[in-house]
Amino acid sequence: MEELEHTCPHPRTKLTEPAIFTEETSCDCQAPHEKLTISQARRGTPVDRPVRVYADGIFDLFHSGHARALMQAKNLFPNTYLIVGVCSDELTHKYKGFTVMTEAERYEALRHCRYVDEVLPDAPWTLTPDFLEQHKIDFVAHDDIPYSSAGSEDVYKHIKEAGMFVPTQRTEGISTSDIITRIVRDYDVYARRNLQRGYTAKELNVSYINEKKYRLQNQVDRMKEKVRTVEEKSKHFVYRVEEKSADLIQKWEEKSREFIGNFLELFGPDGTWKQVFQERSGRMLSYALSPRESPCNSPPRELSPLRSPSPPSPPTRWHSARPSPPTSPKGASASISSMSEGDEDEK
Fold this sequence. Notes:
Cyt_trans-like, 13 helices, choline-phosphate cytidylyltransferase activity, phospholipid metabolism, phospholipid biosynthesis, lipid metabolism, alpha/beta, single chain
C-alpha cells in the first residue's frame, strides 16, 4: 500500500488535556483520502494514520448515555481518531426543539470527555459527501435506530448505503428526554428548592401566588424536619435509657443472686453459722456440766462500799462439832431433848 502523507497538528498527548476544536486546527490533508472498508479498519490498516470516526448529536444535558456511545465509537477499531460534531442552537431549535444548555456549554462539555479527540462546532444536520471529504471521515458512528428528521425517514440512510455507517448501542434508562421529564414531573420540588437557595420568583418564572405557596411549603417541611429530628433524638435517648436500665437490672440480679448465695452459705441448713452455733452450744453445755475450779491464789473478794460488814459471830460454846441432821424422826426428837438439857445446864 502506497504511503500517504497525512499531517494532523497537535496530536493528543495527555488524557487530562481537553479535546481540540476543528476550527482551531483545520486539519487539511494534502494527499487524497483513501477509502477504507470496515474489515481493513479492524485489521489496523492503514498503518500510517488512525481511522477517522465521526459521531454527531445534540448532547444536551450531557450524561452517561452520551459518554457510553462515544466510548463505543472510540473503541471500534484498534487505532481510532474520534471527531464529534455538535449541532448549533439554531439548527437544534429548528429541527428538534429547545435545549437546556447553550451551544457553547454543549461544546465545552464534549471537549472534556475522555473519549473525544476533536470537537466540530456548528455541525450540519445532514451529512453531505463534501462534508465527509472535507474532514477526511472514514466512518460515521451512531445507533442504528432510524433517525427521522428534516423531512427524511432516516438522515443516515445514504451513509449506510455507502458502507460508512458503524452502529453503536443505546443505553437504556437514560436520555436527555428522560431527565427533562423528571424535572417537569417534579417541577414544584425543584422550584421550591431553588427558591430556598436564593433564586427569585422572577428568575424561576413563578407567579406571586405560587411563590407564597412554595415558601409556606418550605416552612412546613422545615418544621417537619425539626419534629423528625426531635423524634429521632428522643428515640435515641429512650434507647439509651432502656439500655442503661437493662444493664442496671442485670447488675441488680447478679448482686441479688450473690447476696442470696452468701446468705444461704452462712445461714442455710448446712451453713457456717449452724456449725458455729453447734460448736458454741456444745462448749456451753460441757461447761455447765463440769464447771472449772477457782484458782487457789485468786484475790479475795472485795466488799462493796455500800454494804456494811456483817458482825462477828459469837464464840462457839460447843467444843464439839454440831451434830449432823437427824436422819429419822426419832433421832430428831433425841437431838431436840439434848439441846434443851444443855440449855438448862447453862442456866
